[in-house]
Amino acid sequence: MADREVLTWELFGSASRELATTIADDGFEPDLILSIARGGLFVAGALGYALDVKNLHVMNVEFYTGIDQRLDLPVMLPPVPQAVDLAGATVLVADDVADTGATLKLVRDFCEHHVAEVRCAVIYQKPRSEVKCEYVWRHTDRWINFPWSTEPPVVRRQAQVLDA
């Protein structure tokens, strides 16, 4: 698997702690962390504990359907956070990877007109990402094996991808 980045659970622990330290050292103090489900849930949880932020929100966005397979555009899935819940907040958007950046851009743009400030934190960022995140643990241009998505599901459900 030399053509891939491999993130283990142990390395994720170190990566998320280092990412949190970078954010804290920068002086950024988010009021809330907005995770992009599903991969961002792990990142947001780890950052929430490390930065002592209990206010976590989730935004579900469908984009990837498989390895290098994606919809034409990312799609927000319900429930979409209410703008009033974000009003005036300092928001940290958390995801596992900024690949094309399309998902992060959708979420950041959604927040931008409602919040005081929005910044993005990811474990990995790829060079082609249209969003340059403020906080990145590592840069790569390779496919990433995340510990939460490397193994196949225990149960296979019927396709849940939206028709775009």
From TrEMBL:
Q: Where is the Phosphoribosyltransferase domain?
A: 5-151
Q: Which sequence ranges form a coiled-coil region, renumbered to this chain?
A: none
Which Pfam families does this chain map to? Pribosyltran
Q: What InterPro entries does its record include?
A: PRTase-like, PRTase_dom
> Which key words are in the record?
Glycosyltransferase, Transferase
Q: Which Gene3D superfamilies match?
A: 3.40.50.2020
The record's GO molecular-function terms, alphabetically, read:
glycosyltransferase activity
- Keyword flag Transferase: yes
Keyword Transferase, does the record have it? yes
How is this protein named in the record? Phosphoribosyltransferase domain-containing protein
Species of origin: Nocardia tenerifensis
